[in-house]
Amino acid sequence: MPQLRPIRSLLPSRSAGLSDADAGHAVTRRPVEPTPAEETVVNSAVYRDGRKTATPATLSEALASLPDASSMAWIGMYRPNDAQLYAAAKQFDLHELAVEDAIVAHQRPKLERYGKTLFVVLRAARYCDETERVEFGELHVFCGPTFVLTVRHSESPDLSAVRRRMESNPDLLRLGPEAVLYAILDAVVDGYAPVVAGLQNDIDEIETEVFSGAPGVSRRIYELTREVIEFQRATRPLLGMLRGLSAGFEKYNTDEELQRYLRDVTDHATVVVERADGFRQLLGNILTVNATLVSQEQNEEMRNLTQASYAQNEEIKKVSAWAAILFAPTLIGTVYGMNFDHMPELHWVGGYPFALSLMMLTCAGLYTIFKRRDWL
User: Fold this and answer.
1) Distances (CA, A) of 89 to 108, 177, 215, 307
2) Is the pTM above the cut of 0.85?
3) Is the bond preceding 145 in cis, omega lying within 30 degrees of 0?
4) How far out from the chain centre does Cα 312 lie?
5) Measuring CA to CA, which of 91, 176, 236, 349 is 20 to 30 A from 325?
6) Nearest CA to 155 among 191, 131, 118?
């Protein structure tokens, strides 16, 4: 059993010093209780030459079950609290900084080496068809010379499938903890494929909605852009991590089979990162096109409104012109219809023809004037 390194008693203070803004991004802290670490162990096994030899009940038993350097313990923990993770750290001699990161969680994907132990942070992703959203999970992997300790803070990724795959391939499993690490990397990267397909389907739907003028499409573009950005944050650091692993092939005498394995993972990760970059650029273009279409639609509505207003004004002009034409004879008739005994021309014989002629001349004159001004 490796010599134990004392864990700093000040580790919990890191998240305690977070600001209110940062606290919203931190994992909800579970109370530190004197509960055994085994309560959060979801799977535990010891392997020798690629074959399972024991399923220890405790962490100390797992280390004690290692007969020689060719053996390996693979322990999986799910959402351990601080005390439980400290207990595991003491058993496996984990570096305090790595343990601190595993406790705080919500780390960016990264790869760090502490002596002979690799500490890897991965962000798994899962596409939910029901909500059409991407859910992200976090996985911490401690990979030592004779052990692999995985700490999950969410449901994904499901490492049981990785364990079954490795147990069904003893030739690969006997290559040791690095083989398990590469298998986990491969599972996480392969899990991005359904996410890429789901995002592509959402983008296709958005394109259809944009050109069909569906309401609320701008909000959906914005929300999907945020998901793509988060997906980029989960995938882009992988390329640097994989390059770092490749750079250590010669120094750490990595098996050639594992080198080929890692190169395949790198190829898949590169495709995923390129697709994510393409999605973000495409969404930016779609947002620009949508803004242009909305502007054109608004201009078309303004043009239609202007035309309608112009047509309404033309009708008002016609009504006003006819009202003026009809008002003239009404005025003349009103004057000649007043009942007074002493009125000029009241007893004039030609008064009636004169009144009619005056009405006709006035109407004709107004009609001519309005016609020349295109009011009629």
Assistant:
1) 21, 17, 53, 77
2) no
3) no
4) 49
5) 349
6) 191
